[in-house]
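S1.2 Input.
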Amino acid sequence: MGIGTAAPTDLERKEVAHHFVDFLDPSEIYSAGDFERDVLIFLDDYFQTHDVAVMVGGSGLYVKGVIDGFDNLPFDIDIRKQLNKRVIDEGLESLVVELKALDLVQSVKMDLKNPQRVVRALEVCLVSGKPFSSFLSDNSTKRKFDIIQIGLSAPREEIRDRIAKRTVKMLLNGWVSEVKKLQDFSDCNSLKTVGYKELLQYLDGKCTLEEAQERIVISTRQFAKRQMTWFKKDDRIVWFDKSDVESVVNYCREFVGKS
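S1.3 Output.
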């Protein structure tokens, strides 16, 4: 799924070591809590020989897991499988209605069009008998390492233009062929994501490639807007213009020098 997930290229991986790339099968279910656990295990070993690790986000909930931790999110694989089956049989909306009834606070904050997020939040509600939002407390877990958070910003029109060009580039690089090879996994959470779900609709004859491309651009813009809303709420993030590389580097060097 390298094209659709914009995974680092072979050249980029040769220049800088990357971790947690191409480490899951598309059929595997993997949560933000799983990511928190695995990253902390990795960092315990990594910091034995390295002073600095760089985490690039992306997905705000996964970032929160590593930085702040979760309050031991409960899980039940059987319930998760049942909920995923309901998404297929009944559609996502029925789960959204149930989640709103059990946890209105979380339903207002989250992406209700993302099956994986809805299923996970509802799973926690059903397993624990408590709202999912009650596990996402503002009290962060103290980590054994220092953390600095950097945000990169750009004008809205530039972001919209880059998203459109990025979509074209990914399609030219063979994204449709990549999705075609993954059609057997179409019911998996990994394929119910931006770009893959639109291209699966194209391959199923439900829309033209041009329509799929337009939908991908719109979905990506919406996703980018939600990302910005999420990260702007965190006042620990220091923001820089994406082109001001020198200021970012100097700020990081100063922080590391004081640590």
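S1.4 Remarks. Residues 75-136 form a domain with the Histone, subunit A fold (CATH 1.10.20.140).
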